């Protein structure tokens, strides 16, 4: 392996810069030339590719977003788009590609590497934490901290006014951010896609809290939950529990920004180095992850298809603590 391309793709996540930095510096450490592909797969299609050097990645470790820019490339979903990408892959004489992103980006990486027999390695970068083959994805810890910090602030005003708040968090079809920010923020309940909650069960929980003179009530709603969005859940609850003064906050994209936590920086640094070392040792069509604090390589197809389940333990803990 003499020349590697690196790109970030899909929704950005805090720590992506740290991962790019680690890939670039590990390449240079091992005498491999490294090229930044700008704006995700679109950059490969449009030859938006530049060589990166050790100082190209100075002062980005602490920055959110991705200096390589990112996109959800529609063109890469087409065979013609991927052919153009492969042309540029060859033109720049690349031997392998490192893709930092989530499941959509890895689906593209998997198809590309199979179609053209190109060595590809994925680094999990998404706030959603919805990839198997790693305990945590890069950006998840920062997003949880951001959401939990917001919940702390909402709790202040919720208790002053004795209001019930519904806080909607991101996570696409997964409830990892919801569960972690809810437990960390002491929410009275969390509604997530993985758990079959009903409006009736939620109302029961809130009634019990009210009967126990609960001082503040924050319910965390995962954006992908079956009961609807936070406004719809709030409306349904309001119909039954008219005595609550209810407000809704949707945290939205602020969860995607900000300086990465130490956990995310360290994870990104370890996975970035392991991606380059994996390629050197012949790994391909795999995602590099961290399981029980050890580097693990999982076939990309498996990482995106295997459902990563939320543990029942979290629900048990939340229930015990929300009384
Ligand atoms: O995958 C990351 C994520 O932030 C999800 O949590 C969310 O559903 C989605 O991306 C939002 O996508 P966009 O930035 O395209 O609106």
Automatic annotation (TrEMBL):
Organism from which the protein derives: Roseivirga misakiensis
Positions with a binding annotation for ADP: 21-25, 155, 214-216
Any GO MF annotation of the entry: 6-phosphofructokinase activity
Intracellular or extracellular location(s): Cytoplasm
Residues given in the record as substrate binding sites: 126-128, 163, 170-172, 223, 247, 253-256
Protein residues bound to ATP: 11, 72-73, 102-105
Enzyme class: transferase
Domain Phosphofructokinase as annotated: residue spans: 3-278
Assembly mode: Homotetramer.
Keywords: Allosteric enzyme, ATP-binding, Cytoplasm, Glycolysis, Kinase, Magnesium, Metal-binding, Nucleotide-binding, Transferase
Regulation of catalytic or functional activity: Allosterically activated by ADP and other diphosphonucleosides, and allosterically inhibited by phosphoenolpyruvate.
Official protein name in the record: ATP-dependent 6-phosphofructokinase
Binding sites annotated in the UniProt record for Mg(2+): 103
Family to which the UniProt record says this protein belongs: Belongs to the phosphofructokinase type A (PFKA) family. ATP-dependent PFK group I subfamily. Prokaryotic clade 'B1' sub-subfamily.
UniProt-listed GO biological process terms: canonical glycolysis; fructose 1,6-bisphosphate metabolic process; fructose 6-phosphate metabolic process
Top-level taxon in the UniProt lineage: Bacteria
């Amino acid at each position: 392996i003499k020349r590697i391309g690196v790109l970030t793709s899909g929704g950005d996540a805090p720590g992506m810069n740290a991962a790019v930095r680690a890939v670039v510096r590990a390449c240079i450490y091992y005498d491999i030339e490294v090229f930044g592909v700008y704006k995700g797969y679109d950059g490969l299609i449009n030859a938006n590719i530049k060589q990166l050097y050790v100082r190209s990645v100075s002062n980005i470790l602490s920055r959110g977003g991705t200096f390589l820019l990112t996109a959800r490339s529609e063109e890469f979903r087409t065979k013609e788009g991927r052919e153009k990408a492969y042309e540029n892959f060859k033109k720049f004489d690349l031997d392998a590609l490192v893709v930092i992103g989530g499941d959509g980006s890895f689906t593209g990486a998997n198809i590309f590497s199979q179609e053209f027999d190109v060595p590809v390695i994925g680094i999990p970068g998404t706030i959603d934490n919805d990839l198997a083959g790693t305990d945590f994805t890069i950006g998840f810890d920062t997003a949880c901290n951001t959401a939990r910090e917001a919940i702390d602030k909402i709790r202040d005003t919720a208790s002053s006014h004795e209001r019930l708040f519904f806080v909607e968090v991101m996570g696409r079809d997964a409830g990892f951010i919801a569960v972690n920010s809810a437990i960390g923020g002491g929410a009275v309940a969390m509604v997530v896609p993985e758990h079959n909650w009903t409006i009736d069960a939620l109302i029961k929980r809130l009634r019990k809290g009210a009967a126990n003179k609960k001082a503040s009530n924050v319910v965390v709603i995962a954006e992908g939950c079956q009961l609807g969005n936070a406004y719809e859940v709030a409306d349904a609850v309001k119909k039954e529990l008219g005595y609550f003064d209810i407000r809704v906050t949707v945290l939205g994209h602020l969860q995607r920004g900000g300086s990465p936590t130490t956990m995310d920086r360290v994870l990104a640094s370890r996975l970035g180095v392991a991606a380059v070392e994996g390629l050197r040792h012949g790994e391909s069509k795999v995602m590099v992850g961290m399981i029980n604090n050890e580097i693990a390589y999982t076939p990309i197809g498996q990482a995106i298809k295997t459902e990563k389940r939320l543990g029942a333990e979290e629900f048990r803990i939340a229930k015990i603590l929300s009384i």
